[in-house]
């Protein structure tokens, strides 16, 4: 079903129930929330397979509707395949991943859990992306920026965490200097300066205009890269706060 989706979602949120919690006995389950209303739970079936439970939130309660089984497929593999198919084939506003590890190449039965790759990040079409991304390099982020610069992607906010060797110069390489704005210039611009003081970014910072009149601010820190549209108001909360 996911591979045939041609619809629009507000949000897709892939969650490890243990994310951010003290280490306890793992639940061996991954939850996929769609539009904060529908829930797909992927769990072990005890027989080297996966069970998928679909539930819908109605009047504040989650009501289970159906259960599907997949033989000889891990719950991680099925969950990630479903997530990527939805993120690639549907028009999505927000994509959030609250998992410490993910599979870079998803094959049936694999237990690989290493991280999203440069190639895969370019396939996520969401305006907002928040996720751990230890395996997304400066070149992968450069690809996101190039897509935006050429009008092939909209960026409202992107936060990629976990990579320690990111370089701002590599990310903005290839952009003509006339489109690049220094950190000082960003703070000196009336509306943009207000947004900068609100965000209070820390790291190596640059702004980039594109020919469509949009302006993004890129911040590269010790283990993260943040990109945000300077003209879009900062949301009160982020998906994983």
Describe the protein.
There is one protein chain. The chain is of the alpha+beta class and 241 residues long. Helix content is 21%, strand content 33%. β2 and β3 form a beta hairpin. The longest helix is centred in the middle third of the chain and has 15 residues. 32% of the residues are buried.
Summarize the structure.
The protein has 241 residues and is α+β, with helices and mostly antiparallel strands.
Q: What is the topology?
A:
Blueprint (H helix, E strand, L loop, with lengths): L7 E8 L13 E6 L3 E7 L5 E9 L2 E10 L4 H15 L1 E8 L19 H4 L6 E5 L5 H12 L7 E5 L6 H4 L8 E3 H6 L1 H10 L4 E6 L5 E6 L3 E6 L12
Parallel strand pairs: 1-6, 6-7, 7-8
Antiparallel strand pairs: 1-2, 2-3, 3-4, 4-5, 8-12, 9-10, 10-11, 11-12
Element string (H = helix, E = strand): EEEEEHEHEHEHEHHEEE
**Strand portion:** 25-35%
Helix content: 10-25%
Q: Overall 3D geometry?
A: elongated
Average pLDDT confidence is 77
Task: Please compute the radius of gyration using only Cα atoms.
Answer: 19 Å
Number of spatially distinct domains: 2
**N- and C-termini, Cα separation:** 31 Å
Strand order of the largest sheet: 5-4-3-2-1-6-7-8-12-11-10-9
């Amino acid at each position: 079903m996911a591979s045939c989706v041609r619809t629009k979602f507000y949000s897709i949120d892939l969650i490890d129930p243990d994310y951010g919690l003290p280490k306890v006995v793992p639940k061996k389950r991954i939850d996929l929330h769609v539009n904060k209303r529908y829930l797909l739970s992927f769990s072990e079936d005890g027989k080297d397979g996966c069970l998928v439970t679909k539930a819908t939130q109605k009047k504040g309660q989650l009501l289970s509707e159906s259960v599907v089984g997949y033989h000889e497929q891990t719950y991680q593999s099925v969950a990630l395949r479903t997530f990527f198919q939805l993120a690639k084939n549907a028009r999505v506003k927000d994509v959030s991943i609250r998992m410490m590890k993910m599979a870079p190449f998803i094959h049936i039965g694999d237990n690989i859990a290493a991280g999203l790759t440069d190639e895969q990040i370019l396939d996520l079409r969401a305006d907002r992306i928040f996720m751990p991304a230890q395996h997304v390099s400066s070149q992968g982020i450069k690809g996101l920026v190039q897509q935006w610069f050429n009008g092939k992607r909209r960026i409202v906010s992107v936060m990629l965490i976990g990579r320690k060797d990111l370089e701002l110069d590599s990310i903005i390489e290839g952009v003509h200097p006339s489109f690049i704005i220094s950190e000082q210039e960003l703070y000196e611009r009336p509306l943009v300066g207000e947004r900068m003081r609100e965000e209070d970014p820390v790291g190596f910072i640059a702004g980039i205009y594109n020919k469509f009149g949009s302006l993004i601010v890129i911040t590269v820190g010790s283990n993260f890269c943040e990109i945000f549209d300077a003209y879009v108001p900062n949301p009160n909360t982020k998906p994983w706060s």
